[in-house]
Structure prediction request, 271 residues.
Amino acid sequence: MFSFKAAMLSVVALACFMQGAQGAALVRSQISLPQNGSCLTPAQEKQMREAVEGIDAVMKTAVFALETAARFETDNKTKADLLEAANVTKAIDEFLVDNITKILDGPCATCTQIVTIVNESITSLEEALEHIDPSWESNPIFKDVVKAISTIIQLVSDVCPSSAEVLLPKLVRIVKHTDGCLTPSQHKQMVEAVKIINGLFKTTVAALDVAAAAEKDPTIKKDLEEASTVIQDVNTYIIANLTKILSSNCTTCTEIVQIVNQGVQAIEQAL
Prediction:
């Protein structure tokens, strides 16, 4: 069974960060997630090697942007901050690319190994930037680093959708500092995402109902029925509230995050 937490976090990513088909594919992929500990398929390995190239490119772009900004900066403190951020980003890029490549060159590369490296790298980058500027997420001079982090998570999540529970919460942190009304394109993607998630929930409820009807053990039968009721109620709550905020004049990612987090907490507490 797919992870509800991962699926709902994917809604946030789809509306606030993902682009077009890539975001939709990530949400749909929650239907049958590969096990994190399983070896990557040849197709996944090829896709991950391409993702590594994308990661390297976006990180190098961020470094170039920081170094260029530093070159024209007249304030000594800001110049020093930009150069330090560039050096940290460059080091993290090298670590990330080298270690993921090493994993892919091994006999059995897994999503668990890759996600661990990516998570550690992003955390190290965030901590370094936090030291430079506690408000780095909302500081325009670091916008290319913010973009790099979101792109890395997109690329890795596309290959390893089950990484959503580990990596996508980092996007939630970023979105709280870079919020604004959804663009028309994001709004359209969010409407589509709501339909997809509604379908996933309903499919799961139907499966639980069928299992409960066929179950002979009274305790298990009751558990299945309760799980079905909880999931149905959470689905109704999420869909109703997302639909409501999407009807407003200015839907923000913060509002979406709040609804999703409430749904996640409700399921975790009940199940």
